[in-house]
């Protein structure tokens, strides 16, 4: 039995903060939990905080992209926040650009991004 | 050992003379005098301990003194010859003693000469090591100096790149810029390459990677100051800049960045009065 | 390829037979990457490469082991990791090192991506015998 990453709710936004070195099974569980929760709580947005994450390999990268696609199907927007510079450089070198995943520098900016999308006041 | 103690005063005086002559007064004679007398003492102690090998325990004191001396010479800009002479001049100073000396003296001299040669090599090694340290620390200082990340506006940072970009430097810039995004919470970054004379494939790739990495972190990167020749090279090399925003000048890039971060620039009708 | 392990610290072996061994491999490699003085970015690259290869060993090789430790050559220090399995092997190594090619359900970035993240990359494989991948990164 592996540990599960807790999914928190703030209003209509789900917040996941990853604090541990992720095992592959935990990653898959998280993907499943989030899909369930988006529907169960009719969430409009998902924020995944990876400030504490030191390593994002192709497995975790793929999970982030998959969650973004799933949530889009369920009419919720996903934002990945707090990626460290070293992690970003490594992902680029690895060949992963996480297309379709929205990103923000920190939690606050991520929440602001979701608010802007929700009100349709987005610049792009 | 006896060779060194018989005529001690004359030998040390000649040694000190020889060394200070070669240094042409760039180190005071008093200083040379102090250095070499200390060395002489240590050398005599070492020989008295009966050690045959310059790298043996008996000469550890001598080696420590010589390493220190070589380090200082390297830092003060002396040449390797001017450093090694500190040891080799002692051989010359000893030669007169051989003229009327016995066969034993000659054997003793040869033994000592071998040790001195080894010690001279040791000074060169210590000298080179110091120079290498100086070079590598200068290189990293230069790297730091040449890549300032400046804040242009709240939420907008820039790196003005000047000079030739190589792979290593571009990588340093990349890391510094990305870290600055986190530290300042800036969502807009500008890489200005007005001062860069040429761009090769590798450097262009690094710039592209920086932009993509910034995007992964949630920031947007604009490249400005691409000169006509560089634009031609980039196209000729077949490097695809894709949807990366490029602007002719830093001013244009700043304007773009400000607009993206929701700042409106308005020119007042009355000309600013 | 013979790995120039640093004489003062023997390499350590980590079995890779279950899911959490991938995490353990990462952690072990991190310790060595820090010890040999890699910069944070270089550490991250090396650990990520190790993570990809550890997963390959588990998923495609049917399990195996990792040997990791400090290396030394011409006075330079670095970190190395050797992943070995006795699985099915890779029939076409050129193809396996192509971006986007995968025999399983992955993104096909494991081998080719890992190669880009390190200074030295050696792939030794034989069909029905197994695969050994060696990666090295040198401190600047």
Automatic annotation (TrEMBL), chain A:
SUPFAM superfamilies on file: SpoIIaa-like (SSF52091)
**What are the residue boundaries of the STAS domain, all occurrences included?**
3-114
This protein's superkingdom?
Answer: Bacteria
PANTHER family reported in the protein's UniProt record? RSBT ANTAGONIST PROTEIN RSBS, RSBT ANTAGONIST PROTEIN RSBS-RELATED
Q: What is this protein called?
A: STAS domain-containing protein
Q: Record the organism.
A: Streptomyces globisporus
TrEMBL record, chain C:
SUPFAM superfamilies, per the entry: ATPase domain of HSP90 chaperone/DNA topoisomerase II/histidine kinase
The record's section on Pfam families has: HATPase_c (PF02518)
Query: What ranges does the record give for the region Disordered, renumbered to this chain?
Result: 1-21
**UniProt-recorded name of the protein:** Anti-sigma regulatory factor
Where is each Histidine kinase/HSP90-like ATPase domain found?
A: 44-135
Instruction: Name the InterPro entries for this protein.
Output: HATPase_C_sf, HATPase_dom
User: Superkingdom of this entry's organism?
Assistant: Bacteria
């Amino acid at each position: 039995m592996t540990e599960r990453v807790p999914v928190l709710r703030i209003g209509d936004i789900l917040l996941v903060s990853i604090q541990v070195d992720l095992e592959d099974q935990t990653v898959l569980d998280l993907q499943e939990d989030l899909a369930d929760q988006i529907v169960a709580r009719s969430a409009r947005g998902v924020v995944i905080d990876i400030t504490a994450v030191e390593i994002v390999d192709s497995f975790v990268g793929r999970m982030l992209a998959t969650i973004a696609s799933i949530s889009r199907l369920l009419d919720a927007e996903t934002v990945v926040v707090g990626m460290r510079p070293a992690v970003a450089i490594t992902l680029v070198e690895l060949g992963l650009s996480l297309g379709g995943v929205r990103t923000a520098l920190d939690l606050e900016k991520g929440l602001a991004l979701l608010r802007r999308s929700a009100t349709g006041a987005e610049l792009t | 050992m006896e060779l060194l103690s018989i005529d001690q005063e004359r030998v040390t005086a000649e040694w000190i003379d020889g060394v200070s002559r070669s240094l042409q007064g760039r180190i005071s004679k008093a200083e040379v005098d102090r250095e070499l007398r200390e060395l002489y003492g240590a050398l005599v102690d070492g020989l008295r301990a009966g050690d045959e090998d310059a790298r043996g325990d008996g000469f550890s004191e001598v080696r420590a003194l010589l390493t220190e001396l070589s380090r200082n010479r390297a830092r003060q800009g002396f040449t390797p010859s001017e450093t090694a002479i500190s040891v080799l001049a002692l051989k010359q100073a000893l030669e007169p003693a051989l003229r009327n000396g016995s066969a034993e003296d000659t054997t003793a001299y040869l033994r000592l000469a071998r040790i001195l040669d080894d010690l001279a090599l040791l000074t060169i090694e210590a000298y080179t090591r110091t120079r290498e340290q100086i070079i590598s620390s200068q290189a990293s200082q230069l790297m730091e100096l040449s890549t300032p990340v400046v804040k242009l506006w709240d939420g907008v940072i820039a790196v003005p790149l000047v000079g030739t970009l190589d792979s290593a430097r571009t990588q340093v810039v990349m890391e510094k810029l990305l870290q600055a995004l986190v530290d300042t919470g800036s969502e807009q970054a500008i890489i200005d390459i007005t001062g860069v004379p040429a761009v090769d494939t590798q450097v262009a790739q690094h710039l592209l990677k920086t932009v993509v990495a910034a995007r992964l972190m949630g920031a947007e990167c604009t490249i400005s100051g691409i000169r006509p020749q560089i634009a031609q090279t980039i196209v000729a090399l077949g490097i695809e800049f894709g949807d990366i925003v490029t602007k002719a000048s830093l001013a244009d890039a700043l304007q773009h960045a400000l607009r993206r971060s929701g700042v409106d620039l308005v020119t007042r009708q009355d000309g600013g009065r | 390829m013979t790995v120039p392990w640093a004489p003062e610290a023997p390499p350590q072996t980590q079995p890779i037979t279950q899911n959490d061994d991938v995490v353990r491999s990462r952690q072990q490699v991190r310790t060595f990457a820090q010890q040999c003085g890699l910069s944070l970015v270089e550490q991250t690259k090396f650990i990520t490469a190790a993570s990809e290869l550890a997963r390959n060993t588990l998923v495609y090789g049917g399990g195996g082991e990792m040997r990791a430790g400090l290396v030394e050559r011409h006075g330079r220090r670095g970190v190395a990791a050797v992943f070995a399995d006795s699985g099915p092997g890779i029939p076409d190594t050129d193809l396996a090192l192509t971006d986007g090619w995968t025999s399983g359900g992955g993104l096909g970035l494991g081998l080719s991506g890992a190669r880009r993240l390190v200074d030295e990359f050696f792939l030794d494989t034989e069909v029905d015998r197994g695969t050994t991948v060696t990666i090295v990164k040198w401190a600047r």
